[in-house]
Design brief:
single chain; 625 residues; 5-stranded parallel beta sheet; 26 helices
Length: 625
């Protein structure tokens, strides 16, 4: 064949021709000049970034008869033989097809022979990570102590698959992806030398699709030159590569910004009818969201990092005003989630229509911390917990679980928010709910228990197998209002409400239990509270030793005075009085629970999910462990 593709025709013939790998080239040139070449090298990096080319250049300069400093002369017979791929002492091996132990044994046998054409023998093994473990082991001794006339150069795109024993015997060089400007500059140079008319924006688009690979960029340019009528422009590049017109993507983004569901469906229909690749279209949409996000974060600054044409930047600026940064983060996460499923869907069009309709109907985003503050305020205003709220596309779960919304998730433990999550403002208007998760565990003796992980928000009361209750308890259920005189000693009802809110903020579940109590009296340093019979479980939890101590510490911090928390139960017995004799079984059960709580696994579950032991079942004979 007389025609030579651009990727081969424009392969660097000197170290100075290598683009974007100065950190590698400069080190190798100095090693050549000082005569400090290692016997084994590992070149690692993405495809098309110059690994094999650099290996050939190193082999060329090692055997060059008349090197110019650290550069090969490209005039001697050895250099010409390497350039033409016929040098007997420069052996290139494909690691993917010669990966077995037999091939490596053959290499070990031949490696000891003296070079026949040059001064040294250079073995270049491409995609070395494809060798089998047995082949790597067979190579170890030879790699560590090769003959003085032998150099080994390995190239790989997946260095993490190369055994550490191999890595430790090589000098490793990491090649980087080429920058967009480097790719565009090289393509412009090629077009000028080849006398090809071009548009700069077209070469930018080609380079963007190459994703840092010079070989890919040159191959794409070769393809466009073959299809051109004398000039390479944006329209031609999009047609040849099957890329989506940026105008279509901008129309889609504008429809989402204006919440136009019908408009998004019409665009999907137009794209599908035109025969365009659906996955490519969705990737263009994700890229458009990313560009908007960058422009939003930098407030229209640093547009140069977007690699966009001036017209594309102006089109995006018109759309940007409709979004906040949080909205774009929300849409971007949603798009990424949809893309995971889109690749494996048998009906990608349906998924596109649903995804874009959902995006176009999404309301303004609100941070999760702001949502929780609203729930707290709503709970304080109503004096208790309301019903469970729901949203169109969200569900809110509290402490120890995830807040699930479009594209976002965060974990909340102990009233603190980790990470960033955003939910629909429409959902936040009525969102409040409580769920509890039962985690079965067993101790070292085989006893099975249930540990409840509190998953509560200011929404509805705890539900468990041991106790079912409703909060707040109404007057008809037998509990009278707070004692006004007692509350006045604490600063009034408002001060008590703020104290409850502070407890909920630090320990949400404990705050909910305490919220069901009523203040019955304050005598010197003693604070009497009461619970209705239906709230017996809440009473037990509040007066659990660690919880009671915590509440007393919070009382001292909030009111500036130490109070002992005392229960004035319906039977007239306070928490500090000695329990009746028939309470011994309950005491034994609490002691057993305390012992179980010290089990490492159970303790970890309780700490992770802010839970408590609600049921313990003795292991029976015949039960499986």
């Amino acid at each position: 064949m007389s025609y030579l593709v651009l990727a081969r025709k424009w392969r660097p013939q000197r170290f100075s021709d290598v683009i974007g790998q100065d950190h590698v080239v400069n080190t190798l040139k100095k090693a050549v000049e000082k005569g400090r070449l290692a016997h084994a090298y590992l070149f690692a990096g993405p495809r098309g970034c110059g690994k094999t080319t650099t290996a050939r250049l190193l082999a060329k300069v090692i055997n060059c008869a008349n090197p110019v400093g650290a550069e090969p002369c490209n005039e001697c017979s050895s250099c010409k033989a390497v350039n033409e791929g016929r040098h007997l002492d420069v052996i290139e091996i494909d690691g993917a097809s010669n990966r077995g132990i037999d091939e490596i044994r053959d290499l070990r046998e031949r490696i000891g022979y003296a070079p026949s054409q040059g001064k040294s023998k250079i073995y270049i093994i491409d995609e070395v990570h494809m060798l089998t473990p047995q082949a790597f082991n067979a190579l170890l001794k030879t790699l560590e102590e090769p003959p003085p006339h032998v150099y080994l150069i390995f190239a790989t795109t997946e260095p993490q698959k190369v055994p550490a024993t191999i890595l430790s015997r090589c000098q490793r060089f990491n090649f980087k992806r080429l920058e967009l400007s480097e790719l565009v500059g090289q393509l412009e140079k090629i077009c000028k030398e080849e006398k090809i008319d071009y548009e700069h924006d077209a070469l930018v688009l080609l380079s963007r699709r190459a994703e840092g690979s010079m070989r890919d960029a040159e191959s794409l340019l070769d393809q466009c030159i073959s299809a051109s009528e004398g000039k390479i422009n944006l329209k031609l590049v999009r047609e040849v590569l099957g890329l989506m017109d940026s105008q279509v993507v901008n129309e889609l983004l504008a429809s989402i910004a204006s919440r136009d569901r019908a408009g998004t469906l019409a665009i999907v229909d137009r794209v599908v009818s035109s025969g365009a690749d659906i996955e490519e279209f969705f990737l263009s949409y994700i890229e458009g969201l990313r560009n908007l996000l960058v422009m939003s974060i930098y407030n229209d600054g640093k547009v140069d990092m977007l690699d966009l044409t001036s017209d594309e930047v102006e089109s995006l600026r018109k759309i940007l005003g409709a979004f906040k940064t949080e909205d774009l983060l929300l849409l971007f996460r949603h798009a990424v989630m949809v893309y995971r499923d889109l690749r494996y869907s048998n009906q990608p069009r349906y998924m596109l229509e649903a995804a874009f309709s959902e995006a176009a109907s999404w309301s303004e985003a609100v941070e999760l911390s702001e949502l929780i503050e609203r729930i707290d305020r709503a709970g304080s205003a109503t004096g208790g917990l309301g019903g469970a709220g729901t949203g169109t596309n969200n569900s809110f779960k509290g402490k120890g679980t995830q807040t699930e919304g479009m594209g976002g998730s965060s974990k909340s433990r102990g009233g603190s928010i980790e990470g960033a999550a955003f939910v629909d403002r429409e959902f936040s208007k009525g969102a409040s709910g409580v769920e509890s998760t039962a985690v079965p565990t067993s101790d070292s003796k085989g006893n099975v228990s249930t540990v409840r992980a509190g998953t509560s928000s200011e929404g509805q009361a705890h539900r468990s197998e041991a106790s079912s209750q409703r909060l707040p308890v109404s007057r008809e259920e037998g509990l009278v209002d707070d004692d006004v005189g007692a509350l006045s000693k604490l600063g009034g009802r408002e001060a008590w409400s703020k104290f409850l809110a502070s407890v909920r903020e630090s320990k949400l579940t404990l705050g909910i239990w305490l919220n069901s109590a009523k203040v019955k009296g304050v005598e010197e340093n003693r604070l009497f509270i009461d619970f209705s019979p239906q709230n017996r479980f809440a009473r037990e939890m509040v007066f659990e030793e660690k919880n009671r101590r915590y509440i007393e510490n919070q009382l001292e911090k909030f009111f500036g005075r130490r109070y002992a928390l005392i229960s004035s139960g319906s039977a007239g017995r306070t928490e500090t009085e000695k329990p009746p004799a028939d309470d011994k079984p309950g005491k034994k059960a609490r002691a057993a629970d305390a012992e179980l709580a010290e089990e490492p696994f159970v303790k970890r579950v309780i700490e992770e999910f802010d839970g408590e032991i609600i049921k313990k079942t003795e292991k029976r004979k015949g039960d499986k462990a």
